[in-house]
Write a structure and sequence with these properties.
- The complex is a heterodimer of chains A (about 290) and B (about 475).
- Chain A has about 290 residues and is of the alpha/beta class.
- Chain A has 9 helices and 16 strands.
- In chain A, helix 3 links the parallel strand 8 and strand 9.
- The longest helix of chain A is centred in the C-terminal third of the chain and has 18 residues, at about 270-285.
- Chain A is globular and about 65 Å long.
- Chain B has about 475 residues and is an alpha/beta fold.
- Chain B contains 21 helices and 16 strands.
- In chain B, strand 7 (about 300), helix 17 and strand 8 (about 320-325) form a beta-alpha-beta unit.
- The radius of gyration of chain B is 24 Å and the shape is globular.
- Classes of the chains: A alpha/beta (about 290), B alpha/beta (about 475).
- At the A-B interface, helix 1, strand 7, helix 8 and helix 9 of A face strand 5 and helix 16 of B.
């Protein structure tokens, strides 16, 4: 059992969990994830490690309430426990001194980007953060992102703060501005890292492709064990089948078959709906 | 004179091998309960009486862990069932499991002299009988389970075992018996490895696995779950935490795919995923359990091994109307156990021999057909089996909504890629001395499927056992 030492509701539907998991905290690196199982009958779901404290042995996870498992998680309180948490899994982000690095996040993706931003800053990069969300209230970790970035740009779908539109739209304009009048497509950006909903990562990838900027995305495919044993998370990169859990989760965006990823993410959509319906009915009757 | 003596004694008529009672095929394909039901005491006594206690007991030589088969059967004949179980446990800590899933027909029973003219003694079924009997008596309150009351104290050096499947559990059992402090590290949330994620409930009930693992724990073995060694702790970390030796028994967990078009369509599973969802995650109880699985109505399983059969029979129980088992050779070459092939046949699994998939077709991202080509058998290949050769122009299609790929597994990838300098074979398995399990790194041993490639439960147990002896010697002498 893994104890929740602190839980916060950031906005409606997004929770953060500080979990006592000393072994994981000891080894975790930016870009890695855990797999958790809330209870005995629960499924195993992957969540990115948003932060870790090697001294206290605590890791930080963010969960967006979208289905039954995440609804169960959101019902848990400080002092409750999660049955199983295993990690750190996946390969850490590649951290180096690249130069100018843009970190793009959408929604709760900010939680995954934050530890990478910190490491990139530490490695001596000029960190430009582009943080997007539905509206102003759904921008999470703004303060932390601002502290660790040299530039921060907010984007909202409804324009309630910052750029009015998607992060990909902002990024395109930003890159074009940086390019100025030069024909060489040289933006001076060494690398873009984008983490968020699959459609957003796909859009960012298409924006950076003509600029030939190396772009990294963290793929959130469906997993079971997370150790390379089942192949549920397989994705196609450079025409080859790869397992997101052991070969990723980060891949070169320009080589990812996003269409396949989007399809595979939908495979259990009916099951998920059925699970959620039963769960909601049960919640209502208990009330 | 001597002839008269013989005539005076009535010739003993040896009974036929006692059949194992099983659930009716039509009933059992609607549930996940165990197929075979086990012997009654009466049946066990009849079967045990068939053993002639021959002097050489060649059966024992056929057992990878060297169970004293002759003695335990003799104890059954004398109705000393507890003693019979103790006798087995001297060599094997997992009798209820082995009695069920060992390929006895290729091991102990293959050597039985009764097999020369008739059918061998059903050694596996007798082993299962004594193990099940103890569990039943304990459940009924008729027997106290002595071992369950205490956990043994182990005081010798610390040994780490990575992977709690058959090899790891056996190595742990043997080392704990010698007094070593053993910690078993398991990546999943339940111990047992392939016994819990791979082999289905209807062939090996998980309650049985749990109880046999309880026995291992009672010997003083500690089990740490959710520990992916290689990520959360390295081998060096284990040594610096005071472990004197490490045994790697992480198994053959990496699923192979065929590399044909359409393999990433929704509805295409590796057998590992399909079985893990159903067995470990209990997807067959969805929505009571949260893990989903696609319940196909027309399912194709690729591969003729035990894993393929387990997948096919699981699909049937999940409600499939047609389950096709596609195998590129003929029935004779199937690597699966004969008993399991017969079970599958009586459950109406439809075998498509001498066929090989060339493409999986789909619509809107979901599989709807599989295209195969017919094969014929040519000259024997390096495995000694006749090589299948495609017959040009013989392609045909089958309508399916689920495809399960069960063509084999490679070495579990995480740990071995994280040990710098560890010597591997061409196929990516760990190179280890078959007699001792020693790798090229001092203090690091390996055994089971991670060394041999996918094999059987009992062979992995045999490796665990041999390695335990070598680990003991290494710790005592320091010699590598």
């Amino acid at each position: 059992m893994y104890k929740i030492v602190k839980k916060e509701k950031l906005v409606e539907g997004i929770d953060s969990f500080y979990i006592k998991a000393p072994f994981i905290a000891e080894k975790a690196k930016a870009g890695q994830f855990v797999i958790l199982r809330a209870n005995e009958s629960g499924e195993r779901i992957p969540l990115t490690i948003a932060d870790y404290d090697r001294n206290t042995g605590i890791i930080l996870l963010f969960s967006v309430r979208i289905g039954k498992t995440t609804s169960l998680l959101s019902m848990l309180k400080q002092g409750d426990s999660i049955m199983d948490v295993v990690g750190p899994l996946g390969n850490p982000s590649e951290i180096d001194k690249f130069g100018n690095v843009i970190l793009v996040s959408g929604g709760v993706g900010a939680a995954s980007v934050l530890p990478i931003a910190r490491e990139m800053k530490k490695a001596g990069n000029y960190v430009i953060s582009i943080v997007g969300a539905r509206c102003k209230d759904f921008i999470i970790l703004e303060k932390e992102m601002a502290e660790t970035s040299d530039e921060i740009h907010l984007c909202t779908d409804d324009g309630s703060v910052g750029y009015h539109g998607f992060v990909s739209g902002f990024l395109e304009e930003y890159l074009e501005k940086r390019m100025g009048s030069s024909d060489k497509k040289d933006t001076g950006i060494a690398r873009v890292i984008a983490i968020g909903p699959t459609l957003m990562m796909n859009a960012v990838s298409e924006v950076t492709r003509p600029f030939r900027i190396k772009t990294i995305v963290s793929l959130n495919s469906i997993m079971v064990d997370g150790t390379g044993m089942c192949g549920s998370c397989r994705v196609e990169v450079s025409g080859k089948t790869r397992f997101a859990c052991i070969h990723g989760p980060e891949f070169d965006a320009h080589e990812v078959n996003f269409k396949l990823l989007l399809e595979r993410q939908k495979v259990y959509i009916e099951h998920e709906k059925q699970s959620m319906d039963i769960y909601e009915r049960k919640c209502r009757s208990e009330k | 004179m001597s002839e008269e003596v013989k005539r005076d004694r009535p010739r003993k008529v040896r009974p036929d091998r006692v059949d194992m009672p099983e659930q009716d095929p039509l009933k059992r394909i609607k549930n996940f309960d165990e197929v075979t039901l086990g012997y009654s005491e009466e049946e066990a006594l009849i079967e045990a009486s068939r053993c002639v206690r021959c002097r050489n007991a060649p059966c024992i030589k056929g057992c990878p862990v060297g169970i004293d088969i002759k003695s335990f059967i003799e104890l059954i004949q004398q109705k000393k069932f507890d003693e019979a179980l103790d006798k087995i446990r001297e060599k094997n800590g997992l009798p209820a499991i082995c009695g069920r899933v060992c390929p006895q027909e290729d091991q102990c029973e293959k050597n039985c002299i009764l097999g020369i003219k008739g059918k061998p003694v059903a050694i596996g079924r007798l082993e299962r009988f004594v193990a099940d009997r103890e569990m039943r008596l304990v459940d009924e309150g008729a027997k106290e389970c002595d071992w369950a009351k205490t956990t043994k104290e182990c005081t010798k050096e610390k040994v780490a075992i990575v992977g709690s499947g058959p090899a790891g559990l056996t190595c742990a059992t043997e080392l704990a018996k010698l007094g070593y402090q053993v910690t078993l590290f398991e990546a999943l949330h339940e111990p047992g490895g392939v016994l819990v994620y791979g082999i289905p409930e209807f062939r090996l009930p998980k309650e049985i696995v749990k109880r046999e693992i309880d026995y291992v724990k009672s010997l003083g073995v500690k089990i740490e779950l959710n520990m992916v060694i290689g990520r959360v702790l390295t081998i060096d970390d284990l040594f610096s935490r005071g472990f004197k030796a490490v045994f790697i028994s992480t198994g053959a967990g990496l699923p192979y795919f065929m590399g044909i078009p359409g393999e990433n369509l929704n509805g295409v599973y590796s057998a590992n995923e399909y079985l893990t969802r159903s067995n470990l995650m209990k997807a067959y109880k969805f929505p009571e359990y949260d893990t989903p699985i696609i319940r196909g109505s027309r399912v194709a399983v690729i591969g003729g091994g035990n894993v393929g059969l387990d997948s096919a029979r699981t699909a049937k129980r999940l409600g499939a109307e047609h389950v096709y088992l596609i195998y590129r050779r003929s029935e004779k070459e199937m690597p699966a156990r004969k008993e399991e092939i017969e079970h599958a046949e009586s459950e109406n699994i439809e075998f498509k021999f001498l066929a090989n998939p060339v493409e999986i077709l789909g619509k809107e991202g979901r599989v709807n057909k599989i295209r195969c080509i017919r094969m014929e058998l040519g000259e024997p290949d390096e495995s000694g089996r006749r090589r299948p050769i495609p017959i040009e122009g013989s392609e045909f299609e089958i309508d399916v909504d689920v495809v399960i790929v069960a063509i084999g597994q490679g070495p579990s990838p995480i740990l071995i890629s994280m040990i710098p300098g560890l010597e591997l074979t061409r196929r990516g398995n760990i190179k280890a001395d078959p007699a001792t399990g020693k790798t090229n790194i001092k203090g690091v041993f390996a055994g089971g499927d991670i060394v041999t490639g996918a094999a059987t439960v009992i062979l992995a147990m045999g490796a665990g056992k041999k390695t335990a002896v070598a680990i003991d010697e290494y710790i005592r002498t320091g010699k590598w």
